[in-house]
Amino acid sequence: MANVLILNGSPRKNGATASLAKALMEGAEENGNEIKEDYITSMNIKACIGCDSCMRTHNGCVQKDDDMAIIYEDLLWADVVVFVSPVYWGTITGQLKVVFDRMFALGNKVGWDRFRKKCVLLMTARGSDYSMALDFYGILTKYLGWTDLGAVLGAGKEAEAKAIGENIE
Ligand SMILES: Cc1cc2nc3c(=O)[nH]c(=O)nc-3n(C[C@H](O)[C@H](O)[C@H](O)COP(=O)(O)O)c2cc1C
Q1: Which of 87, 97, 130, 157 best tests ligand 1's pocket when mutated (most atoms within 8 Å of CB)?
Q2: Coil, strand, or helix at residue 47?
Q3: Is 56 close to ligand 1, i.e. is its CB under 6 Å away?
Q4: Residue 81 near ligand 1, beta carbon < 6 Å
């Protein structure tokens, strides 16, 4: 059994990308996994200010008074992190990007070797070009040293998303 965190960066709670996330959650739940979802758009999360304090002090982020504290806790809890985002201007939404930038402080605090996860990418787009998003995902997983469990790219692919959820253990 695994702890699965859905990091939902879509601004539309009942949109096409949220539907993929719902399907993955169904599959993962049926398989006995624990699920949590952080819906980023409803949270108050400030952007990284690039002060490098987290790198120098290893004390976490200087911005202590926002909802990133919830996401930090959930990230430490999770074995598998599912990134959910529509394509905006070729890549992920600003909401999700802000969380990734702030995640830097958590790795610097707990140590990157102790911050290894499995991850999944769920995205939809009006068109069919996911290349920039996939480049970004490749860089992210490489830098973090996380294990990619798969990507589902495109609206209506709920069966694919559910199958990934069913295979999480
Ligand atoms: C600000 C904005 C930028 C977008 N940029 C792209 C884009 O670069 N490429 C694309 O194919 N679709 C783009 N779209 C369309 C969305 O990716 C698409 O409608 C997606 O399925 C919406 O997902 P949702 O229902 O989860 O919100 C954009 C939409 C918005 C609102």
Answers
A1: 87
A2: coil
A3: no
A4: no
> How many angstroms does the Cα of residue 54 sit away from the middle of ligand 1?
33
User: What are the tens digits of pLDDT across the range 91-150?
Assistant: 999 999 999 999 999 999 999 999 999 999 999 999 999 999 999 999 999 999 999 999
Pocket of ligand 1 contains residue 87 by CB under 6 Å: yes
Q: Please report the DSSP string for 58-106 in residue order.
A: -S--S--SSTHHHHHHHHHH-SEEEEEEE-BTTB--HHHHHHHHHHHHH
Q: What percent of the chain has pLDDT over 70?
A: 100
Set out the domains of the chain in order of their start, with CATH numbers.
3-166 (3.40.50.360)
Read off the pLDDT of residues 64-83 as tens digits, 9 standing for 90 and up: 899 999 999 999 999 999 99
